[in-house]
Fold:
Amino acid sequence: MITAILFKTILVAIIFLVSLGIAAYSTYAERKVAAFMQDRVGPDRAGPFGLLQPIADGVKMFTKEEIIPNASDRILFILGPCVFMLTALMMSAVVPWGKSFDIGGVEFTMQVADINIGILYIMAIASIGVYGIMIGGWASNNKYSLLGAIRASSQMISYELAMGMSIVAIILMTGSLSLREIVDGQMHGKWNVFYQPLGFIIFLVCAFAEANRAPFDLAECETELIGGYHTEFSSMKLGLYLFAEYVSMFISSAVISCLYFGGYHFPGIDSLDLPQNLAAIISVAVLFAKTLFFIFFFMWIRWTVPRFRYDQLMKLGWQIFIPLSIINILATGAWMTFVK
Amino acid sequence: MTQYLFYLLAALSVISALLVVFSKVPMYSVLWLVVCFFTIAGHYIILNAQFLAIVHIIVYAGAIMVLFLFVVMLLNLNKENEQHKNNWIRFAAVVSGGILFLTLIAAMRSTEVLAYNLPPKSEIGFVQNVGMKLFTDFVLPFEISSILFLSAMIGAVVLAKKDKN
Structure:
């Protein structure tokens, strides 16, 4: 019991630190990827290849003057970024990071909580992620912030529907709501993306919209709304908002890999019959490789596709993706009943 | 252990529910209501009804309360521009609220406390069991309520479209 609690605590700490580390280096990677796509050099001053840039940015964020507007609601103004960061980090609790380790005859699963409703937990956290933005935007007492917050949250609730429906098709195929069972159902290269290509596309686009990333970053589009919901935020509060976006990008990349790309499985490795601990290490590495690819994919899209207009965004969500995802559920159901 | 957890959660639910009523700013009321929903979800988890707990969070905290927040934010309800209520309306509200309270107390008095006869580790709240019950024993009420929801949705769309023509 004590070792189990100790192990979970250590695992939580590791996941927390890794999420923050990856989020920090995502900011660097984003600028490098943008530079590469626009034929520039990108940050190269701090350290070799500019590798110390995230640390320099962090120091800058911490030492900037902190301004809380007089007309703002002080408590909610501070609470907003905290809630946003909290919900971004909470999602990592149910992600299965790898196979279980065997240390001295005791099994250690690389998952903080293997609850039997893991996928619903992810939907729940995604749906309460809106509060950080709404609270922050409202508490700023600024019209641009309020508009940004309203845009962000209406976008998030619209895309949640299609996202949930595309997940239903996966649940139909796996017959379980536990993320670990969904991942283990995709062994030997039977990745869900091959069976659910339409569902995958819907889920991916919705993940972009949920994370408020370009081409769906209407909530913070500079030309219309200055900085959107974080216009009034400065110093580390702004830092938390920007940082949490990268944390949620990392975790939603991990979730995409788990749901559609076999998670920690890779075709061929399971049949090699490796010793358990080595297999566990490789499985963690496989999941991270997939996750890093999707983080790159998020950036790739951001610097390639121009921003949507707001009415186009809403139309896409409600009139195209929701009907498509319902058709996807029906098709999957028919396939499960009549073919399989 | 579970008992202490229950008392903690119960205290939090009651306090947050009271704060919903006593907050002067509507925004705070809405946020305290969200906290209250979370504590109720905690109660469901103590009862081993995880599916109900998570659906409670998705539906109430994730969807309905966001719409509440929308309304409060868009109407910008604040203490300064709040309409001053007529004294007669206040009087009527107090009387009707008091009558409701009285009825509730009377109803509570006559009910007997039902024995909780499920074993403590009951698995009735697990999603498989809930789904089985819904689609076998209760399939007719379940489908009828889904049709009810559908008609409500269509009704909302029809009402919203009416003004354009």
